[in-house]
Design brief:
Elements lengths: L1 H11 L31 E4 L23 H13 L10 E4 L10 E5 L8 H12 L3 E7 L2 H14 L6 E2 L29 E6 L8 E7 L3 H6 L8 H20 L1
Parallel strand pairs: 1-2, 3-4, 4-7
Antiparallel strand pairs: 5-6, 6-7
Helix pairs in contact: 1-6, 3-4
């Protein structure tokens, strides 16, 4: 099923596979959640116990799991809808807890700010089952050694035998559709820290599929959220769009 979706997507792109996605993608209209399962491709954000406020939302009451919501999903779904004929919900998304049985209906799940992640035993077991049965999880927007340590500890509870390994630019996830020359370009312009990309492979075998990808010390969501506002260098923003689409294509085809 995933390979069929990938072939449909690859065969119907609007001729932009060798270039950069446009900065002028039309702004989407009405957007809401939840969008219940109807067979169409739907972005799913993971929700967990909101014990911690986002480091960038402490004054606005934004919890870590909901950081950048709904801008991130809204802009990503609009880009996918504009660039492809994939039947994606660009009018809304789903928000699910990690132990919701409905999660198993969706091939890809997104989590923001896992540096604040706090799992229950039930959530850890459920997410582990989701990943080993074919699910693909994308973790975005966390940085610094303390947040990494928390993310690593929580992932160990989800996949006790899984090993997080650094992904190099040559891995196929970075060219699942759009070829990317330099994945480090997406770093925030004000920072000298280069992003790191980490994953857990099925049975810890790098020849098999990724169960998880984590963008660490990365500002890819910020670039996508601010698309069209000319706040960041064109190259970095363009590659942020490419990376988001590549993640989706990889998740649907592996």
């Amino acid at each position: 099923m995933r390979r069929t979706l990938c072939l449909i997507l690859a065969g119907t792109l609007s001729g932009l596979s060798s270039g950069a996605p446009g900065m002028d993608v039309p702004a989407p209209g009405h957007y809401t959640a939840p969008v219940r399962y109807d067979g169409r491709f739907t972005l799913v954000r993971l929700r967990w116990r909101a014990d911690h406020l986002s480091s960038r939302g402490r004054h606005g009451g934004e919890y870590a799991w909901s950081h950048d919501y709904p801008r991130a999903e809204q802009n990503l779904s609009a880009l996918i809808s504009e660039l492809t004929y994939l039947d994606i919900h660009d009018d809304g998304n789903e928000i699910l807890t990690l132990d919701d049985p409905d999660l198993f209906k969706y091939p890809i799940a997104l989590m923001w700010e896992p540096g604040y992640w706090d799992l229950t035993d039930r959530e850890a077991a459920s997410l582990g089952a989701y990943l080993t049965k074919g699910g693909f999880a994308i973790f975005e927007d966390f940085n610094g050694p303390a947040q990494w340590a928390n993310f690593e500890a929580q992932m160990h509870r989800v996949l006790p035998r899984g090993r997080l390994v650094r992904l190099h630019g040559s891995h196929q996830i970075f060219s699942a559709f759009f070829p990317m020359e330099d994945v480090n370009v997406i770093a925030q312009p004000a920072s000298t820290i280069h992003p790191g990309y980490y994953g857990i492979f099925e049975e810890n075998d790098p020849e098999r599929r990724l169960l998880v990808v984590a963008s660490y010390d990365n500002r890819e969501p910020t670039h996508v959220n601010q698309r069209g506002q000319e706040l960041f260098p064109f190259g970095a923003s363009s590659d942020a769009y490419k990376l988001g689409v590549n993640y989706m294509i990889y998740g649907l085809s592996h």
